[in-house]
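question for whoever is on the cluster today: can someone run the full assembly for these? two chains, 227 residues total. i dont have access anymore since they changed the login thing
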Amino acid sequence: EAGVTQFPSHSVIEKGQTVTLRCDPISGHDNLYWYRRVMGKEIKFLLHFVKESKQDESGMPNNRFLAERTGGTYSTLKVQPAELEDSGVYFCASSPHPGAANTGELFFGEGSRLTVL
Amino acid sequence: QKEVEQDPGPLSVPEGAIVSLNCTYSNSAFQYFMWYRQYSRKGPELLMYTYSSGNKEDGRFTAQVDKSSKYISLFIRDSQPSDSATYLCAMRGGYQKVTFGTGTKLQVIP
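^ ran it for u. tokens below:
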């Protein structure tokens, strides 16, 4: 079974440019999450999709960040325009629909490292 | 104040040592407690999951939760060089978002 895949693995852009990160969750996982780790800080929640709907977007920093999940499959996270403080590692995670017997374990991708110069 | 506090380390131990990793938290709503392991340039992977206070053992790993003190621990017995990684405590309430600690970087020296 394929795991969570993220693309690109590393992106270097200049301040003011646009970057789009993509995440392909594990097939059949309704829940998709975006997290971000800024250097030296904890992994922080950005938002949560259930299928194609945004369940919780309370962690999105500002309106320069736009996340979509087309048809409940893959997701994209666009940063436009990018600022220096957006640098970090963006993780995508997926999990099956939570049920009584489900731990809610998150399956993470390897992350997309974003460097804004 | 952060919801989850974790000593970032780094922690360096000789092979075979017992390792103790700890986190404290402030949010009483947290019900589920997890430990993730993250190797360099990889995503975190779930190592241990606990719900109630007490101990849970899995091989060389023991997770301990004390809800009254809002304190969780992960013990690694007979540590191996392959255990060298960053260990992240994580917790959540119900089916809400998972909140992570900063992670403790562990190095086990052969």
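summary bc i know u wont read the tokens: Chain B has a mean pLDDT of 93. DSSP finds no helices and eleven strands in chain B.
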